[in-house]
Design brief:
Layout lengths: L11 H18 L2 H29 L3 H24 L8 H10 L17 H25 L3 H27 L7 H5 L1
């Protein structure tokens, strides 16, 4: 009789297979150029949005110089995203919005989101966050440049790395000029 009772399948087995299968499907539909473009567009769009937020805050705090830097960075990032979109016209790309959500969720965004932090970030700290983001982007583009076999991706990654290096220099210059103000935590909320 033991042979007539069907064995129950583990409820976890289909979930494990589905998780393993999804990355393979994702990479087989798009080549390295399309994946690179989608991620680069997502990085640039996300960083432009964050820089605009920082610029708005710095303007509200009366820090015109730092606000102008963030606006300049936001413009460059937005223009870069537009150039990438023009270059990919007619190319089938993965969902840029989906890639952007993955970048933010994985903490790989050039300028991470800070919804959980008080809105009032001192200029020095905002610059440090921007610097960390630009360094992450530089590391990403340098890693892609070193590891890709695709000549077009290699060339693009090198150009993007040069631009990120320039942004890092701007932020480092602004950090040197911006006094580091120590504020009490409760002051940041007001």
């Amino acid at each position: 009789m033991a042979g007539t009772i069907p064995k129950k399948k583990s409820p976890k087995a289909p979930q494990v297979r589905a998780k393993r299968a999804s990355p393979a499907r994702k990479t087989s539909r798009f080549g390295p150029v399309e994946l690179f473009y989608a991620e680069a567009i997502a990085i640039e769009r996300e960083s432009a949005a964050r820089y605009r937020e920082f610029a708005h805050q710095m303007t509200g705090d009366g820090n015109a110089q730092t606000a102008e830097l963030f606006l300049r960075l936001a413009r460059f990032e937005a223009e870069h995203a537009e150039r990438l979109l023009e270059q990919t016209a007619g190319m089938a790309l993965p969902s840029v919005e989906g890639v952007r959500r993955d970048l933010v969720a994985d903490g790989r965004s050039e300028v991470p989101t800070y919804e959980f932090v008080y809105r009032r970030v001192p200029p020095h700290h905002a610059l440090l966050m921007a610097l960390a983001g630009e360094r992450r982007a530089l590391a990403f583009f340098e890693r892609v440049h070193k590891t890709t076999k695709d000549a077009e991706v290699k060339k693009l990654a090198a150009a993007f790395a040069r631009e990120e290096s320039e942004h890092i220099a701007w932020i480092e210059k602004a950090l040197a000029a911006e006094p580091q103000m120590v504020r009490r935590f409760d002051e940041l909320a007001g």
